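Per-record layout

source: Eolophus roseicapilla
name: Prostaglandin-H2 D-isomerase
length: 186
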Amino acid sequence: MHTALLGLLGLALLGALHAQDTIPVQTDFQQDKLTGKWFSIGLASNSNWFKEKKHLMKMCTTVISETADGNLEVTSTYPKGDQCEKRNSLYTRMEQPGRFSYTSPRWGSKHDIHVVETNYEEYALVATQISKSTGPSTMVLLYSRTKELSPERLKRFTQFSREQGLTDEEILILPHTGERCQGSRL
């Protein structure tokens, strides 16, 4: 009985690891080209916080810069009530180029981040597997260098999000916020 249980747990762990490895990463990823200002155009997630806050979410600005040790500093500025709030995250690069890890100091959740595809000048599609004490979740982000993106890129974001098991109710094209929280000072 004990051996069978260990075998089942081993298979479950292998399945979870395989699921994380099925997310592709940009071929020939060039980290320095990912840096700069991006707008969050789309967000998809099956997490509880997303379901609770989805109706409040708007487009935000994200600035990505390289640190001296080759990691990524990611600063997102988004509207919250009457103010603009900033959130800084340090994405630690992993062995595979285009793949990063992040641990939320606030929630303790672990994030396995994949830059799925990008042409660096127009858009970036990023997928994250999140491990949290309340269970795993998936998040997909669509970044754009401008506030508008072609219907083809929006369709690709939706298609990829569905491929990750997300439903149409869990996929959101973020509404514009005007110039507030997206100024050129960023």
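summary: The first strand starts at residue 36 and ends at 45. The chain has four helices and nine strands.
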